[in-house]
């Protein structure tokens, strides 16, 4: 891990969040799992927790955020503001993966109230081990981000959008600037 935290506690908290989400999907009226399929639902698939994919990113904040139109799974467009660029390193020991520095744009919808940073992305698992439409992360900085601030990006929290489970949901697709040319085997799987 790129910052000093208790790895056992981190793993326990991650497993607890996953169990809570599985319960929501199995039982909650707003679950994206169709009601007729909930009895057969036995939990989401996840990559094993891997602290390698919990990284610290450096933020570049965009004072005059650019509008980004994201295509959706229903063929519409949604407006977001690109509010920050997050730069981070992924250090891998595997021979088939390159170490390197990567960037992801972070967005917010055009609303007056503060919201989490929305980070949709694709990587080399997309369409194979993970949902073909990409995955999402939501980041909640402790305070308003400023240039040079550090923020934890934990790919172990990456999740599959609801539209993967039901056509009643319309989900934004990650824009090309958030397509990572690396394998990120962390977070939710979807096969």
TrEMBL record:
Pfam families: DUF1684. Gene3D superfamilies: 6.10.250.1680. Residues 18-45 are annotated as: Disordered. Signal peptide: none annotated. InterPro entries: DUF1684 (IPR012467). PANTHER family: DUF1684 DOMAIN-CONTAINING PROTEIN (PTHR41913:SF1). This is DUF1684 domain-containing protein. It comes from Natrinema salaciae.
